[in-house]
Amino acid sequence: MRRVLLVASKTGYQVREFSAAAKAIGIKLVLATDRCHILEDPWRDDAAPIRFEDPAADIAAVHARGPFDGILAVGDGPAKIAAKAAEELGLKFHPPAAVEAACDKFLTRERFRAAGMKVPRYQLIEDPRLASELTYPLVLKPLHLSGSRGVIRVNTVSEFYAAFERIRKMTAGPILAEDFIPGKEFAIEGLVTDGQFRALAIFDKPDPLDGPFFEETIYVTPSREPQSTQQAILVAVGQAIAALGLRHGPIHAEARMNTQGVWMLEVAPRPIGGLCARVLKFNGGGLEGGGLEQLLLRHAASQDVSDSKLEAGGHGVMMIPIPGPGVYAGATGVREAQDVENIEDVVITAKEGQSLVPLPEGASYLGFIFARAQNAKNTEAALRRAYSFLLFSSYVELTVVR
User: Fold this and answer.
1) Residue 127 burial class via C-beta count within 10 angstroms: exposed 0-12, middle 13-18, buried 19 and up
2) Rounded Cα–Cα distance for residues 343 and 361 (Å)
3) 33 partner at 20 to 30 Å CA-CA among 56, 177, 182, 247?
């Protein structure tokens, strides 16, 4: 039985998805997570504890759980650990320096610029008093947060000050300020094998992402853009992968397209987050309707997945946004949403009593809607119709003054 090491920050949606996928295809999955070192297997999943802030000694302990045929990571932080572990364990993965660059927005811009790629004007800001010297509109970004957390568009000096203060409360260190890039936005899921990039899917993002915050909602594939546009996007992704030095494993890229061409936003050394991977189903390469996790596990275990192709038709997911702060109290209309034609599933992940924090501070969604149809147009329509039936309730949590 092939054995794959999965590095994850905690037990969550993706870990459970990978665990189920591994069982389905006969791969032994060994977890390495940043959990308690004192309690013996508190989650009953036989995971190896690893301290992300100082992983060196723990990687040696993980080595004893081997041998391993491959390694994967869920999330940016775990990808950094996986890169170091892969280097020490002699496994194929992205190099540590490449992962560090990919997970740092400033270093990413520096690598892209050095490779001659399109990049907006950008600079690191530590003193907000520089706001009056800048040209607007700008986008402010924390260097190391993912999922659009802390990313804020500002159009004026006063908006700059307010946004800078919000980001400062979320993370320390300098903040990246760069020109706002207009245009359509796309997400690209792919694999890198010994330095060679292969696209698995290009997602259109039909809802405009113009700010002030950049909360993503609908992803639909295959892209409805002309083939020339899609090819230009894939060429840019390949250039970005080479510029960062990514070598082996999954990537999730974000790009914008306008009249000037393709502007790469980022290439993360990991797969798409949350439950979104459920939208992708593949045939061929040992996969018959298997999901992204199965494909990635086979690839990590050095099994040939070169013949795998995305299933025909349109595939889409809607990440249900959190409209405002409060405490989640439930949802209605779920059954009606599930009954919409071409809807595959509606999964509400929020739990009653859970505090809801919207972007830019938040890092979660209310749930996910999945759709499959004959084409991308019908898939998007199904997602929007299903969402129209959902009504979410929340209440304001009052602070008690004693």
Assistant:
1) exposed
2) 30
3) 247
Q: Which residues is 189 bridged to in the sheet?
A: 201, 252
Q: Which of 296, 248, 288 is nearest to 272 (CA)?
A: 296
Amino acid 243 reads A
Give dist(CA 5, CA 373) in Å, integer: 35
C-alpha 135/C-alpha 386 separation (Å) is 41
* Averaged pLDDT, 261-267: 98
| Structure confidence by residue, pLDDT tens digits, 23-73 | 999 999 999 888 644 434 444 556 777 777 776 767 777 877 889 999 999
Q: What residues contact 172, with CB distance under 8 A and at least 6 apart?
A: none
Helices (H) and strands (E) in the chain, counts: 10, 22
- How many C-beta atoms lie closer than 10 Å to residue 352's C-beta? 11
The whole-angstrom separation of Cα 56 and Cα 7 is 14
Type of residue numbered 120: P
> pTM for the complete prediction?
0.94
CB atoms within 10 A of CB 215: 18
Distances (CA, A) of 225 to 10, 203, 285, 314, 357: 37, 10, 27, 14, 34
Tokens for 315, please give them: 């595939």
Contact 333, 390 (CB under 8 A): yes
**What is the mean pLDDT of the segment spanning 221-239?**
98
Question: Domain residue spans in the chain?
Answer: 3-102, 121-179, 313-402
Burial (CB count within 10 angstroms: exposed 0-12, middle 13-18, buried 19+), residue 28: middle
Q: Return d(Cα 333, Cα 155) in angstroms, integer.
A: 38
Neighbours of 309 (CB within 10 A): 11
Instruction: Quote the CA–CA distance of 358 and 264 in Å, as a whole number.
Output: 26
> What CATH number does domain 121-179 carry, 3.30.1490.20, 3.10.50.40, 1.25.40.20, 3.40.50.150?
3.30.1490.20
CATH of 313-402 given 3.90.1170.50, 3.40.50.1110, 3.40.50.10860, 3.20.20.70: 3.90.1170.50
| Angstrom distance (rounded) from CA 216 to CA 21 | 26
Average pLDDT over residues 199-214: 97
Q: Which amino acid is at 39?
A: L
CATH number of 3-102: 3.40.50.20
The 3-state DSSP class for residue 23 equals helix
pLDDT (0 to 100) of residue 11: 62
